[in-house]
Amino acid sequence: MRVRIGRGFWSSRAGLGLLAVAGLALFLAAVSFVAVYIHFARVIDARLAGPVFQATSHVFGAARQIGLGEKLTLSELATYLRRAGYTESELSLADLPDTLGRFKISGHSIEIRPGSNSFFSRHNALRVEIVGNEVSRILSLDDGSWREVAEVEPALITNLFDQRREKRRLVRFADLPKVLVDAVLTAEDRRFFEHAGIDFIGIARAALVDIRRGEKAQGGSTITMQVARNFFLTPSRTWRRKLAEILIAIQLEQRFTKEEIFELYANQVYLGNRGSFSLNGFGEAAQVYFNKDVKQLSLPEAAYLAAIIRGPNLFSPQRYPERAAGARNNLIEAMAEHGVVSRAEADAARRTPLEVARGSVGASDAPYFVDMVKDRLLDRYSESDLISQSYRIYTTLDLDLQRAAAEAVRLGMAEMDKQVAARYRRGKARGEEVPPVQVALVALDPKTGEIKALIGGRDYGQSQLNRAVARRQPGSVFKPFVYAAAFSNGVEGRQPMVTPTTEVLDSPTTFTFEGQEYTPNNYGDQFHGVVSLRTALALSLNVATVGLAEMIGYDRVVDISQRVGFGNHIKATPAVALGAYELTPVEVAAGYTAFANGGARTDPLFITQVTTPDGKLLERNPPQTHPALDPRVAFVMTNMMEDVLNRGTGVVVRARGFSAPAAGKTGTSHDGWFAGYTSNLLCVVWVGYDDNRELGLSGAASAAPIWAEFMKRAVELAPYRGVQPFVAPEGIVMATVDPESGELATALCSTSLQEAFVAGTEPTSYCVLHGGERAAGATGEHPSWLSRLFGTKQQTGTQPAAAPTEGGSQGQTAVSGTENPSIGGQPPAGPGKATPDSAEPKKKSVLRRFWGALAGETKDKKQEEKDQAKP
């Protein structure tokens, strides 16, 4: 029996036509789905072909020094090595081909073995033994020798920024601590390791909320979908994009493991800003927010990073500390409710204060320094190469010293803000908005010129202007070069010949130059009459310094300034003596190396070498030095600048607790300056306004306190701890002189000081005010018994004489406590006294008149007798 289908709608022509259309639509939909699927497959292939993240070049700091006796724990050293890119492993380097090196901890020691791509190229294997949180022994595993100091791998400062201004430190899934993974899953996708990339319940819930609100605001995205969106799509909130997310997520789940997907997420997720750069990934965020390697994150720290994923700027710990702590605590509570952490762990974590690393001046990544590096590299390499070739750029920056600089600046500028605000409240500017004061700090090794720390402003995010390389009037920090020019006469056979005891007149004076009048004034309108050059420099006396420059010739000052690298823009005018011609803090620091480095000027250096990822050397930059000053002149200037700190305008440095042997000079123009150095570190600080308005504070009140705070921290670090007294070179005479007469002291002199002279310029007469006579050899007469018994002087020979240390006779009397100290000495060959006007009668100090009366004769009569006795 045949069954016949009844004639109905689906067997009609219309029904069959509809079925055909439906079939065609299904076919087209299938074809479209396959086409879209293939399209997104190609998108994924194109995006993930080669390096997933841009292979930008990396900037490294200087090699880390470790010294015997240094306070250091095994954990701290291990953390440093991880940041430098080393792997903690028992495997040999042959089994770790892609690592810079490896380390392993065994008992109280840590073994460090560099890899082929290391800064040291496999050499410099070490075993560091640490007992009682102190480095006890360092063994070279290359040659079996014991070392007092060793270097380990330079740490990464940052990557060279790409055009999107993103910063990240790539991490592997294995690098992420479990507590961070748990926190992220709790906050973002609790079923991540269970679903196939799509949480349909979550999507339905998000859609329902969107319908109720009438807008597309809800997420519902899984971690896989977030990876799809962040890597392959735009951030627009549309259903079309949501469909694309789903399709890409399905493919990602098919092609990658869950761990690989989470790793992509962990390196791409946006976690806020630092300055003008976006922070991407947990590796960079851990460093910026907590100054830690990601492996070292604690529960409260991991919870904070996970909690801010949905709104990093809404939960900024600087701007909204209570809101940030609340978000963290809510996530910790959620982790406890889902059994991820115990109730006790959650309660303890919630009680922990939310403390993030300070980064207002770029302590973690030295942005102003990195900008200098990038600008320098762009002179030699294309930007595309720097972004794509993964060059390894090794610099001179000491990250520990950079952090010390950042902290000193933070403390000093907080104090500056209070002073400026108080001045605006009580001054004519009352009611005006208090402008922000800016700052720059440059610290370098005076022997090599290597820049060890650099800060170019208070907040890189607000202003990228690098004030460390911006020209401003240096004021009195330039004065030492005037005095150096004067003392150079003694070694170059020029006249007039002057010494630290030569007297100059410090009183209101108008100087005439090329038909123009120039009337300088002293700071605070204070004048001191007749003073020695030592006193004039220690008290930073303007008129006395211009008088000295006029006496030796302004062109001599310009000549010395060019020798130390200050360029051709400085002119031979009276204003040159007071630092009227602009210099940058980096230029000032380079100039001061001539004093700190025995007369040799060292060029500033901040890039030591550049290599390719496989270790091929592209460039190497050794230190460059140039003769600038005679070593004897450099030492005399250092000796005089020690007095600036010990009892001159820089005494605030000592009052702030910095006691190591050091020399320096304050400066006050529109701005405040301080430049100073120890035997192994030189630092220049500038404080002022960007618009060049008057700061209204001296260098002693503005820049010197920051310098002191920085140097106190610096000398606690191993490379800068061994500060030594400054040592005199051959050809320096240390003579004990009377500060009143400037002549060789006798036992009857109430005070005396050890004065430094270039050999041949030292005084030859004993103090006539206190029992001395003309020395033998000057008149052919024999010296008195007082002179033979008590007069002393010492010339350096093959064994250089050490400079007088703090607390010696010089330290007691180098700058008199009287109002008008007058220390005079008559150099040989009769150069005469250095006064701005030879016709000006020389003023007598109270002590000089007293001793003259006591001796029964006036100073003028004694001078007359001396003049008659000259050959």
How is the topology of this model organized?
Blueprint lengths: L12 H36 L9 E3 L3 E4 L6 H10 L3 E2 L12 E6 L2 E6 L11 E5 L4 E6 L8 E4 L3 E4 L6 E2 L10 H11 L11 H14 L9 H10 L6 H17 L2 H11 L1 E5 L2 E4 L1 H9 L8 H9 L13 H17 L5 H9 L15 H12 L4 H6 L3 E4 L3 H28 L11 E7 L6 E5 L23 H14 L10 E4 L4 E3 L2 E3 L10 E4 H6 L3 H11 L1 H10 L21 H12 L3 E3 L4 E5 L5 E4 L4 E3 L3 H17 L4 H4 L7 E6 L3 E6 L4 E7 L10 H16 L17 E6 L15 E6 L26 H6 L2 E3 L13 H5 L32 H9 L4 H11 L2
Parallel strand pairs: 1-13, 3-4, 10-12
Antiparallel strand pairs: 1-9, 2-8, 4-5, 5-6, 6-7, 11-12, 13-21, 14-15, 14-26, 16-19, 17-18, 20-23, 21-22, 24-25, 25-26, 27-28, 27-29
Helix pairs in contact: 1-6, 3-9, 3-10, 5-6, 5-7, 9-10, 10-11, 14-22, 15-17, 15-18, 15-20, 17-18
Total E-strand runs: 29
The CATH superfamily of the largest domain turns out to be: DD-peptidase/beta-lactamase superfamily
| Poorly predicted sequence stretches spanning 5 or more consecutive residues | 774-871
Can you count the helices? 26
Strand order of the largest sheet: 9-1-13-21-22
Radius of gyration: 36 Å
CATH architecture of the largest domain: 3-Layer(aba) Sandwich
Spatial shape: elongated
* Main beta-sheet strand count, sense and barrel state: 5 strands, mixed
Structural class, from secondary structure content?
alpha+beta
The chain-level mean pLDDT equals: 80
How helical, in percent, are the residues? 25-40%
